[in-house]
C-alpha cells in the first residue's frame, strides 16, 4: 500500500514514540533489509559524509553569495535512503533562482566533478540532485507551502560557517 506524504506526516505527528510505531510496523509487515554489494568499513561511511558535507556547505555558500535567503543544510541520511543532505534556500525572483542554480551547477561540475539531474529552467521550485546532496531553491510562497523543514523536522540542521542572512522584508 502506498501512503501519501500528507498521511504519513499526520500519522507521525500523532505518534508519541516514532520508534515504537516503526517497530510495530516492522513486526506486522516484516523488516526491510537494504544491502550493498560492497562491504565497506563504517569509517568509510564517515569519510563519505565528511566529503559530502564539505560539498553541501560549499553549495550553501554559493547560494549565499547570490543573495539567497534563509539557507538551511539538513543532514537527512538517517531519515531517507536516497541522499545525505538537503540544501534549502529562498530566492526572490525566477531570474535569481536561475542565477543560483547556474552557479551551483558550475561549482559541482568544475570543482567537484558532479553533474546534477533535475530542473534546467527556473520555476517557483528548482531542484538540483547531485546524488548525496539535493538542492531545493524556492520562491517564498512555495517554500512556505511545501515546508520541507517541518516535513524533515527530525533532520539535523548543520550550522553554516558564513553569514546567512534572513530573507529581506517583502511588503
Automatic annotation (TrEMBL):
GO molecular function annotations of the record: ribosomal large subunit binding
GO biological process: negative regulation of ribosome biogenesis; negative regulation of translation
Keyword line: Chloroplast, Plastid, Transit peptide
GO CC list: chloroplast
Taxonomic superkingdom: Eukaryota
Subcellular location: Plastid, Chloroplast
Primary location recorded for the protein, binned into one broad class: plastid
InterPro entries, alphabetized: Iojap/RsfS/C7orf30, NT_sf
Assembly notes: Interacts with chloroplast ribosomal protein uL14c (rpl14).
Record family assignment: Belongs to the Iojap/RsfS family.
Alphabetized NCBIfam families for the sequence: rsfS_iojap_ybeB (TIGR00090)
Record protein name field: Protein Iojap, chloroplastic
Organism: Linum tenue
Organism placement in taxonomy: Eukaryota, Viridiplantae, Streptophyta, Embryophyta, Tracheophyta
